[in-house]
Amino acid sequence: MIAARLFAQGKSLTEVAATVGCSKSSASRWKQAWKEGGVEALRPKPNPGPKPRLNPHQQRRLVGALKQGTAHWAYAPDGWTGPLVRDLIRQLFGVKYHVDYVGTLLHKLG
Questions:
Q1: Residues 38, 41, 43, 44: what is their CA dihedral angle, to the nearest 10 degrees?
Q2: Whole-structure pTM value
């Protein structure tokens, strides 16, 4: 946003880069974006992250499968663990997750 104000004041790429502490090429990209889309074009755009490996339908199926319990799926322990959930996901959907991510996934699914 500072760069946009400086561009509006007619400052050069070199001056803008020196003022905000960036490279001239970054200042050039910002100026182009500012010229094409105004200040709005310079606002941060959140990165949505990678596409989920399980689509929404599969996620709902997983929650339903987990609610059936471990005994339904012929797992000996009573209660789900990360490795068991990882195994069930692989069995049902052919999708491989690292066991450390399973807890994060389950948290996201509520």
A1: -170
A2: 0.60
